[in-house]
Specification:
- By secondary structure, this protein is an alpha+beta fold.
- The strands form nine sheets. A seven-stranded mixed sheet has the order 7-8-22-9-18-12-13, sandwiched between helices. Strands 1, 2, 3, 4, 5 and 6 form a six-stranded mixed sheet that branches. A three-stranded antiparallel sheet has the order 19-20-21, with helices on one face.
- It is a single-pass membrane protein.
- It is found in: Cell projection, Growth cone; Cytoplasm; Membrane; Synapse.
- One of its GO terms (molecular function) is zinc ion binding.
Length: about 1400
């Protein structure tokens, strides 16, 4: 990066050492085109203190992990760098795919290169280590040859001071401490150390904990104001071009960031917008600075006791008006003119008659452009800043019109008339109509005011033409007065916008931090009155610095009686007395000369010589030159007395004021008020009385109209009466009245001179600074050529000398800059002191002697304790260690108490469990004993019964056997008798059944169990169907008597078989009549089993996916895969039966890929949107359907839908959003799914990162500030979250509009949706999250209410009218009966038509 543009071109080369230098990301070195790689390596070794015994090489790389090109020792790195793209030279990111760098590598003895790991990995580790150091988790790295605080220099002299600053500057460390004083060296280049990361880094840190920074000073001042409840001020001083304005901007930004804590209220926005506006109208390019402040400003930011900004005030000092009409070489006019000419639109260019800068006399005197500036962008930035401050578009047009009038006024040129020597004329009369149009004055009056003056004598009025030189002076004076009045008006409007009305009523204490950004010390080739006033202001600031640092501190040391050696310093009291101490002060003599009409520049110079000849602080040139020399603290400066008197009494002529007062523009007339505050107050009072009279007149007209009484003559309007009742006797026009009053201004008291006003404002500033605790920021210009990162030793050393930095370092190094009163010391360090230590000198001295402190690092005075910074830090470290020890002790005891309570509870629980287990075991043992005893008794009874039965069977069988044997014998005998014809057998005897014994039918006793078994099988076959009928048929067929019995009893077996066959035919006829019913029941049972299996599968899916956390849902997914095998035929062989198809389910569990999945639930909103679709499709579809069909449904979001339906719809939307038909679902199911989508978001719509900001905004007392804070946090949401949130809020407003029908108010909607879109992070304490429920609900309620109030009544009526039609459609849609179970199975399996009929018939039970 270029540093010099001369014959010797210097560049800053960044070399990344990698693992060779731990903790260092890159090492910047200065090199030229001819600098070789060997020389660059030598400088890196010297800077980083590397091991010189090793060999190093330089490598060029173009991307991470890419090929490295090793440079030869004679190669030139700068020449290689010049071949890089411009983007690579300007933007150096720490990570990226393509990044050009120079790497330092170590070369091994064998010639190979030691790479030492990946550069990208090393950069990440280094960056992580740096962040941990910033957070205090790792110790700060030791300084490598430089010190962040100059008080720590081992050797104190000018050379060591300069070397330390130069070493840090070359490492791009532009900030250095001198105790609590901050030194800033302007690098003339923007460094990336001012982003929000650094704002958080320096929050609530003491000076010295981190690397020096401007943010550290602002943070210390802010917290000191809150802790001590005292006002603070930050004084920024330095030469022109040293970076004071930029430092002020950084301070203001940091102070507002500390106040707002995440969101900016209206006051902070106005403060931030006031800076660019004041810079545009008050800054210009000079020879030393491209953005030099040509005025001084003191910004006082007022705070509440809570630390939030309450208001602000801006005080301006001495605007350089002469720059408007004349600029020195290589300088420009104020920025706003160039912004307007470059950024105005075509319409504005025509309206304001704008031209090119070269065509204006006030702009064409020297240069027009500045390197690197974008005027169009700056104009847009100015427009935005003016809008933030509160300038309306009409006001901005009036301001730009006045600026154009000033430029055209400067183009007016004069010439002498040919026929008269004492009169003049305008060379270019075409400019007059343009100026009169822009100022809205009459062209004739403008011509008269610019060419003649009016003088009133006794009894007559004279009109005298101007001379040629006088006319140019009047023209320039008019332009300067207009611009000065405009600048004062802008400052007044900014202060009015920053004014807090509560400050005028309440008596609460107001804390403030003032930031002084005043013009720096200037020494040009031609120094005039402006430079004289500017340098006098710097003398006063240097005197204030000396008083605070040297004089007051040393006097305090002497009064406290501590041992101290005085340090000499440069006292500039004599120079201040020369300029401002009456009666012989130079300002006083200048005012006297301005009162004499015959005074000249020479008479002024002679008076200076007579009064101050011999004073050591003033000199006069030896040659006859109208100038004098002042010996300032920063050196000698020569001032020319030319125009001193004119600039000191720069008042506009009365006829010019009268001309501007006659303008038709109220804006121009308001600028000409003598006092802007009085003008504004009069305007407010006038508006009040106008409104009061208008209300009274309206009331009278209303009363007359109501009673029927009418006036004969209308009342004269108030505007016609204005001024008429006062001046009607004089018969004067408005212009004549103004002219007459202004022509007699000499009879009134003259206004104070510019020098008197400037001294008064400086005295007020010093009084304000004296009432505050100061912090000093010393800005130093690094080089006079405004080149980036160029350090000029002589220029920097000169600034260090005249600011007294060496003496400041010496007194800070040897002095005691930390002071405590005895009471404050005991109160602050009571933890380190023994108990009962009194706030006395002896007690504190005894306690300090016992601590491990350096003897010369502290002293105890009469009423105060004096500490050096090192001892204070050591005491703070001891205090921190002791407090942590006590905290750990308390935590240990508290945790022990908690563990003890936990142990006692666990012991009691264990005892209770043991008692229960003992009782359980006793009960179990008793049951075992009882069971064994009962089993024993039952077995004994069984054995007795078994023995009795066996005995009975044995007796019965023996009896039957004997009976049969006896009967057989008798039958044989009878048969023989029959055969022989001896016996006749009767039929009754043949049919008689003698098998009876003891009342039992012994012939049927054995067969009775078989018949009962046959009947049970017949009953079971009637319920089990045709398959069991065939089995029972075979069983009945095989159930016959034994063969032996058949052979033995042939006559008896025949009738038995007949009975069995008859029974079998009867049992076969009965199932044949119920075949259809059995088949239907069997089929129904199989379909119910399949339905149960489907429901169980859905439960599995809901358990693994729906009930898990969103992170688990992203990792795992359970999907149902349709079967790929052909359907199987049912056992019945019915091909049309859908239940015969085999339905297979496969659970696929795998890694979830959000890029390839179509999931809609549990996915980041950004993955569901794109450039064409700003709101997720699922959200748009659900909201549109609810608004079309559920807007008038009672309790639309209060009632819940069916759980199975919700799961089914959620799965369907996850599968394919476009193909889902929402008409198949109840409206409450759709509303529940929509709420479920909001709850499943990994990061809610109102994100976790902004949760605390929403809670903090809701904690504001003022409702307007609270609402503004909530909307400012909402504006910080990402585009996807913001678009989705806007759609949701609009939907909720539409729901709330129909509260009379749906019974859903804004409060009810906020209660329902607040947990969905504004959830607390997991890191927050649960008790705190419960306490924040009211705030989160109120946040959403206020957002809905505000949008609700903005809805027009016509649109509301239209919505209601359209909603009535939708209610009918919704009721018609809801009247259709739907089966809950069928819809649950839809999208999972393709069930058969028979199942659909079955489920519809049983929908009530499954629902």
């Amino acid at each position: 990066k270029s540093i010099n543009h001369g014959s010797f071109i210097d560049f800053t080369v960044r070399i990344y050492p990698g693992a060779l230098a731990e903790g260092t990301i890159y090492c910047p070195i200065s090199a030229r085109k001819t600098t070789t790689a060997a020389e660059a390596i030598e400088r890196v070794i010297e800077r980083l203190h590397l091991d010189r015994t090793r060999c190093y090489v330089l490598a060029e790389v173009k991307e991470f992990g890419g090929e490295e090109w090793i440079l030869n020792p004679c190669d030139c790195p700068v020449q290689r760098m010049m071949l890089w793209p411009r983007v690579a030279l300007e933007h150096r990111a720490l990570s990226g795919a393509e990044d050009y760098r120079f790497l330092l590598r170590q070369k091994n003895l064998d010639g190979s290169i030691h790479y030492g790991g990946s550069l990208q990995m090393w950069l990440q580790v280094t960056e992580e280590r740096r962040r941990m150091q910033e957070r205090g988790l790792l110790p700060q790295p030791d300084s490598q040859g430089d010190h962040a605080d100059l008080c720590h220099l081992p050797e104190l002299n000018e050379r060591s001071l300069l070397d330390n600053l130069r070493s840090r500057f070359r490492q791009e460390k532009i900030y250095t401490y001198v105790g609590s004083i901050l030194i800033v060296i302007n690098p003339f280049k923007f460094l990336p150390i001012y982003n929000p990361k650094y704002v958080k880094m320096y929050d609530n840190h003491t000076l010295g904990d981190l690397e020096p920074h401007i943010y550290a000073v602002a943070d210390v001042a802010y917290h000191a104001m809150l802790q001590r409840e005292s006002n603070q001020c930050i004084v920024i001083s330095g030469e022109s071009g040293s970076g004071k304005t930029q430092s002020t901007n950084f301070l203001i930004h940091h102070l507002t960031a500390l106040s707002q804590k995440g969101f900016a209220s209206g006051v902070e926005q106005i403060i931030l917008g006031a800076g660019p506006v004041l810079e545009a109208f008050g800054n210009a390019k000079t020879a030393h600075n491209n953005n030099s402040s040509r005025f001084g400003k003191f910004i006082q930011v007022n705070y509440q006791e809570s630390g939030t900004v309450r208001g602000a005030y801006v005080e301006k000092y001495l605007l350089e008006k002469s720059r408007l009409v004349y600029q020195e070489h290589n300088e420009r006019n104020y920025h706003v003119f160039y912004y307007l000419l470059a950024g105005a639109s075509e319409e504005e260019r025509k309206a304001f008659h704008l031209k090119k800068p070269e065509e204006y006399h006030y702009l064409s005197q020297d240069c027009f452009t500045v390197e690197g500036e974008d005027l169009k962008h700056d104009f847009e930035r100015l427009q935005l800043a003016m809008e933030m401050v509160g300038f309306l578009p009409a006001t901005r047009r009036q301001i730009f019109s006045l600026l154009s009038a000033i430029l055209h006024l400067g183009n007016i040129r004069y010439k002498r008339k040919t026929y008269r020597d004492d009169s003049i004329d305008i060379c270019n009369p075409e400019e007059l109509p343009v100026v009169s149009e822009l100022l809205e004055v009459k062209e004739e009056m403008l011509f008269e005011a610019l060419t003649t003056r009016k003088t009133v004598t006794v009894g007559e009025k004279l009109i005298v033409p101007y001379k040629l030189s006088e006319a140019n002076t009047v023209r320039d004076s008019m332009a300067k007065s207009l611009y000065s009045a405009l600048f004062d008006w802008i400052v007044f409007r900014i202060n009015h916008a920053l004014l807090n009305l509560k400050d005028l009523v309440e008596t609460t204490k107001i804390l403030s931090i003032g930031v002084l950004d005043i013009f720096g010390f200037e020494d040009y080739e031609n120094n005039s009155f402006e430079q004289f006033c500017i340098n006098f202001a710097n003398e006063r600031l240097q005197h204030y610095f000396n008083q605070h640092i040297f004089k007051l501190e040393q006097e305090e040391y002497r009064s406290e009686g501590i041992s101290w050696h005085n340090i000499e310093y440069i006292d500039n009291t004599g120079c201040i007395n020369l300029i401002s101490k009456k009666p012989t002060a130079m300002f006083h003599l200048l005012d006297e000369e301005c009162n004499f009409p015959q005074a000249t520049n020479q008479t002024l110079l002679d008076k200076f010589k007579r009064q101050h000849e011999g004073n050591s602080y003033i000199e006069f040139p030896a040659v006859m030159e109208p100038a004098f020399i002042i010996r300032h603290y920063a050196g000698k400066v020569k001032y020319g007395v030319k125009d001193f008197r004119e600039k000191n009494t720069d008042h506009m002529r009365p006829d010019i004021v009268a001309l501007l007062k006659s303008s038709k523009s109220a804006f121009i007339c308001g600028l000409m008020g003598i006092d802007p505050s009085a003008t504004f107050r009069w305007a407010v009072l006038r508006s009040y009385f106008r409104a009061l009279v208008a209300f009274r007149e309206a009331g009278k007209r209303h009363t007359q109209k109501k009673t029927g009484v009418s006036r004969k003559s209308p009342r004269t309007p108030l505007s016609d009466l204005q001024g008429k009742f006062v001046f009607e006797d004089f018969n004067l026009t408005l212009h004549d009245r103004i002219t007459k009053s202004l022509l007699h201004l000499h009879k009134k008291k003259k206004p104070p001179s510019i020098s008197a006003q400037f001294q008064a404002s400086l005295n007020k500033l010093m009084e304000t600074l004296g009432q505050s605790e100061p912090y000093f920021v010393k800005c130093i210009r690094s080089n006079a050529e405004k080149l980036p990162l160029r350090f000029n030793d002589n220029l920097v050393l000169r600034q260090l000398r005249y600011t007294g930095m060496l003496e400041t370092v010496r007194i800070r190094q040897s002095g005691y800059n930390i002071k405590y009163s005895f009471k404050d010391f005991v109160h602050h360090f009571c933890v380190l002191l023994p108990e009962g230590t009194s706030a006395t000198r002896e007690g504190i001295q005894q306690c300090l002697d016992q601590l491990d402190l350096e003897p010369d690092g502290y002293q105890v005075g009469k009423t105060m304790v004096f500490l050096r910074e090192a001892e204070r830090q050591r005491l703070q470290a001891l205090l921190h260690t002791e407090v942590l020890r006590r905290i750990i002790t308390l935590q240990r005891r508290f945790r022990a108490q908690l563990e003890r309570k936990q142990f006692v509870r666990m012991r009691e629980a264990s005892v209770c469990i043991q008692v229960q287990m003992w009782l359980y075991r006793r009960c179990t043992a008793a049951l075992v004993i009882q069971t064994a005893w009962r089993c024993h008794q039952a077995r004994e009874a069984y054995l007795r019964l078994y023995a009795a039965v066996k005995q009975l069977q044995r007796i019965s069988r023996g009896f039957l056997t004997r009976q049969r044997l006896r009967e057989r014998k008798e039958q044989q005998e009878k048969l023989l008798q029959v055969q022989n014809g001896q016996v006749n057998v009767s039929p009754e005897e043949e049919e008689e059944s003698p098998e009876t014994i003891m009342g039992l039918d012994l012939s049927t006793w054995e067969d009775r169990s078989c018949e009962q078994r046959e009947r049970s099988l017949q009953i079971l076959s009637s319920h089990d169907g045709a398959v069991k009928e065939e089995e029972e048929g075979r069983e009945h067929t095989g159930t016959t008597e034994s063969p032996s019995k058949a052979h033995s009893e042939p006559a008896t077996s025949i009738p038995t078989s007949t009975v069995v066959v008859r029974e079998r035919s009867r049992t076969l006829d009965e199932p044949s009549q119920k075949t259809t019913r059995a088949k239907r029941e069997s089929r129904r049972m199989r379909e119910l089993e399949q339905a149960k299996f489907s429901l169980e599968l859905l439960k599995v899916r809901a358990t693994t996916g729906g009930a898990s956390s969103p992170s688990e849902e992203r990792r795992w997914s359970v999907e149902l895969v349709p079967p790929t095998t052909p359907p199987l035929r049912s056992p019945q062989g019915t091909p049309d039966s859908q239940s015969s198809k085999g339905i297979h389910y496969v659970c696929v569990v795998g890694q979830f890929d959000p890029e390839l999945s179509s999931r809609q639930f549990g996915v980041e909103v950004s993955r569901l949107t794109n450039d064409e679709r700003t709101v997720p499709l699922v959200v748009e579809k659900l909201i549109n359907y609810i608004e079309m069909h559920g807007l008038y449904t009672e309790g639309i979001y209060r009632k819940s839908g069916s759980t199975n339906k919700i799961k089914e719809l959620k799965q369907g939307l996850d599968t394919d959003v476009d193909s889902m038909n929402l008409d198949d679902y109840n409206i409450h199911v759709i509303a529940s799914v929509f709420k479920q989508w909001l709850r499943d978001l990994p990061n809610p719509l109102m994100t976790f990162e902004l949760y605390e900001e929403f809670i903090r905004a809701m904690g504001l007392q003022d409702k307007k500030e609270m609402i503004r804070g909530v909307y400012s946090v909402i504006d910080q949401l990402s585009r996807t979250h913001l678009n989705t949130l806007e759609r949701l809020i609009f939907h909720l407003v539409r729901i709330a509009l129909q509260e009379e029908t749906n019974r859903m108010s804004a409060n009810a909607l906020a209660i329902v949706f607040a947990p969905c879109i504004l959830r607390c992070p997991d890191t927050i304490d649960p008790l705190q999250s419960v306490q924040d429920i009211g705030k989160t609900t109120t946040t959403l309620f206020e957002t809905i209410s505000i949008q609700f109030s903005k809805i027009d009544s016509d649109s509301t009526d239209f919505t209601k009218t359209g909603g009535n039609t939708n209610v009918k459609n919704v009721k018609r849609h809801q009247s259709k009966p739907e089966s809950g179970l069928c819809f649950c199975l839809r999208g999972v399996v393709d069930v058969t038509s028979s199942m659909m009929k079955l489920f519809k018939s049983s929908s009530a039970s499954f629902s």
